[in-house]
Amino acid sequence: MKLGIGVAGLAALFICALPSCAQLSVGGKVETKKVLPPTKHVIEEVRSYRLANQDRIMRELREFLSIPNVASDTPNIDKNAARLKEMLEARGVETHLLSIEGRGPVVFGKLDTEGATRTVIFYAHYDGQPVDPAAWTDKTPFEPVLRDKSIEAGGKRISFPDAAGGTANSYQDHWRIYARSSSDDKSPIVAVLSSLDALHAKNIPLAVNLKFILEGEEEAGSAHLQKTLQLHKNLLGANLLITGDGPTHQSGRPLVFFGNRGDIGLDITVYGPARSLHSGHYGNWAPNPAMQLSRLLAAMKDEDGRVLIPGYYNDVDPLSPLEQRALNAMPVNDAELQRELGIAKPDGGSANKPQTSFRTGPKHRSTPGSLKVKIRKKSLHKSRHSFASRDSSSSITNPL
Ligand SMILES: [Zn+2]
User: Fold this and answer.
1) Which residues are CB-neighbours of 185 under 8 A, at least 6 positions away?
2) Would the pLDDT of 399 be above 60?
3) pLDDT at 286 (0 to 100)
4) How close is the Cα of 185 to the center of ligand 1, in Å?
């Protein structure tokens, strides 16, 4: 588990969101500000903390993973929220449970930093996808299991180092922990809290205020998130939101997202003849609704994956040179991914050079043609990388 990269990276982010000026001249008066150490130093310090505290970090994660977390299982989802409150408060974070009837609450946390003028919100969800224990490899989705590598790579089950009588801090980067939500999103939550512990232990001051929004029904569609946040919008001001809910790059390296795209569920009704028709009598005369639906879908995109609906890209900002440079610097892994997934040709050009050079996905448009379309659900915050998405719901801990 490369937990340390995530911990160190997050820690660096929390201290580097402000310039590290030692002195500031205000109206001719020189004020001494907190001296913030260089990022490289922070990363080294936090990594050394992580290496010395792997056992403690992993114990907290394992304990958290052991609490069943299907959104509809209210008693257990409440236990997750209560545990999160304890975990946040142990770090001095002021915590409130923003209740939702019949669902787990949004866990809101706030950690003020003296002298800080900017605020970073960390979002993650603590519920997981519904799971059938019988279909789970180890049959026990809420009992964390360690393997020496991923199941796909033939990983064998091994004992946790503390139980094996070895050195409790001897975790290896290629090991994997399996449990529901081990990647999505319980590990990122433990990573961010561990990064706070590391900064505290190493006497590295935070440069920003921190807020936490931890949701308990993301996998059930986030039906109440928007309303809950609107009700408590006085709590929410911030300059930056970091989401812990998303995939790593296929190369295993962490990703920084430039934006999230949403998704929309549609009910499409295609009208055909008033009764069933015999194909031998009416075929080639009566229009076939299946063919009409195929035509509709096929007309929405060209062969390269570009959306053909008029006006669809109108309000999408072009990529800035900085964003384009960042995309160009991404590891190229198209060939490997195509081989793994059995795909002859990807949509949208190379992952690094998307054919549509736009920053964000456009908003929903009206429907072409005369078909009846009903918007069923609009996910407000589904995290999907805009050019290299992969299902983030695997049971493998993200190599953070
Ligand atoms: Zn998720």
Assistant:
1) 124, 125, 126, 218, 244, 245
2) no
3) 96
4) 6
CA of 396 to the centre of ligand 1 (A): 13
Q: 222 CA to middle of ligand 1, Å?
A: 11
Measured in angstroms, how far is the CA atom of residue 245 from the centroid of ligand 1?
Answer: 5
pTM given for the model: 0.73
Q: Alpha-carbon torsion 154, 160, 165, 171, what sign?
A: positive
C-alpha of residue 213 to centroid of ligand 1, in Å: 13
Select the highest-mean-pLDDT range: 189-203, 298-312, 345-359.
189-203
Output the CA 125–ligand 1 centroid distance in Å: 6
Q: How many whole angstroms from 106 Cα to the centroid of ligand 1?
A: 15
List the domains of the chain with CATH numbers. 3-243 (3.40.630.10), 264-379 (3.30.70.360)
Q: How far apart are CA 157 and CA 194, in angstroms?
A: 26
**How many angstroms separate the CA atoms of 347 and 387, rounded?**
10
pLDDT tens across 268-320, in order? 999 999 999 999 999 999 999 999 999 999 999 998 889 999 999 998 888 89
Calculate ∠ Cα 307-263-242, nearest 5°: 115
Q: How far is the CA of 183 from the centre of ligand 1 (A)?
A: 8
> What share of the chain in percent tops pLDDT 90?
60
Task: Quote the ligand 1 centre to 392 CA distance (angstroms).
Answer: 7
